[in-house]
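Thread: "does anyone have the structure for this chain?"

Original post by V.I.:
We have the sequence but no experimental structure in hand. Need at least a predicted one for the grant figures.
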Amino acid sequence: MNFSSDTSAPAHPRVIEAITRANSGMESSYGADSVTQKVRKALSETFETDDFDYWMAASGTASNALALSCFCPATGAILCHADAHIAVDERGAPEFFSGGGKLQLLPGPDGKIADAALTKALAGINHAFVHETPAHVLSLTNLTENGTAYGVDHVADYAARAHAAGLTVHLDGARLGNALVATGASPAEMSWKAGVDVLTFGLTKTGAMGCEIILLFGGAREKWGELQARAKRSGHMPPKMRFLAAQAEAMLEGGLWLDLAARANAMATRLAAALVAVPGVALAQDVEGNEVFVVLPDGVASKLLDAGAVFYPGPDGSHRLVCSWMTTGSDIDALVRAAN
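Reply from O.Q.:
Generated one for you, tokens below.
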């Protein structure tokens, strides 16, 4: 009954098999190996474009911080939701990697930036006014920290408005697969076609051992050299990158990452339906991906914890339960039995 996080799940067997295959013979270092080069073709097919550059890291925090630092100077700011992962879960990594860039936190329900808040923030950008910190980047998260999904039209609208104000658009896609399954969008539609300049494409939560990919699309490719330099300087240039690449190759082959995301989403839907059937339990948030936020009656949370369930507090007195590719119907049934 471990619903703590999708990062608690093991790597998918195909990922382990791919790592084992890559663990043979001599290969060039620092991303010049044959496995890393093969990932380009897989990414090209997945995102329907050749107009990109990419870099791999082992964690989402490193990927977000590296990506954002290339586009936000030390004297600039990044617009993001007040509950975004980069704001509440990364210990100031974007600020640290950018040398002092500021996060400008915007409100909005369901983990999404409110339209009026974005309008106000964009209108307030003034690079000539020395006393304020002008925004250089808009960062969106999909799935959001509330487990909700931005639709393609929503992303495209916000990206167009950010571009008009001179901003770069970043998408934190730690759970991109879950968002795509929820919305029915393709990877291309949710990224560069919607105006996203730089994507941190997460595979770890979906089923990899530890693999996140920074994708620079179109004009953002001009930052490729700087991204490499920052990766090296910060210790995120793995000498044996083939083992990260092997994970990506396995996850992308045959759309495994989307299949696993669909499985996790389906289990979350089943979990939510089962929990709301328990007297007094209510959903705190619509379930759109693989995360379930519920309000539990007095004593139920303690009862579940005593029975061995693992989950964490959510916002506003709720509790968060996360499903992964490993979640089973038996896990859900056991949790519900313990709640009754």
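V.I.: this helps a lot. Residues 10-254 form a domain with the Aspartate Aminotransferase; domain 2 fold (CATH 3.40.640.10).
O.Q.: and The longest strand covers residues 135-141.
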